[in-house]
Design brief:
Number of helices: 3
Number of strands: 5
Distance between the termini: 5 Å
Radius of gyration: 13 Å
InterPro entries: PQQD, PqqD_sf
Strand order of the largest sheet: 2-3-4
Strand content: 25-35%
Structural class: alpha+beta
Number of domains: 1
Largest sheet: 3 strands, antiparallel
Mean pLDDT: 93
Oligomer: single chain
Order of helices and strands: EEEEHHHE
Protein name: PqqD family protein
Helix content: 40-55%
Shape: globular
Amino acid sequence: MTLQISEAVVWQETADGVSLYHTETGDFRTLNETGSRIWMLVASDGEREPVVSKLSGEFAGGNTGMLRRILVDVHEFIGSMIENGLIEERLS
């Protein structure tokens, strides 16, 4: 499955994080540091596993508990973004 930022979303990286505006719903939000990092990885990598892998390398080291937490958090974040129409998931 490939992840893609919705064409209805205008976004930019700011000093406060990533700011998103959904042009169809009027939803505006600024992501925190973690959400911004995940968003940027989705924008550049387009798949869940590379996002999880890169975050795990940056933050978990060899800590398996942290690896599991990162996996859960990434999937929850992406699921929420898909549910809100900000990210789309398509068959590769």
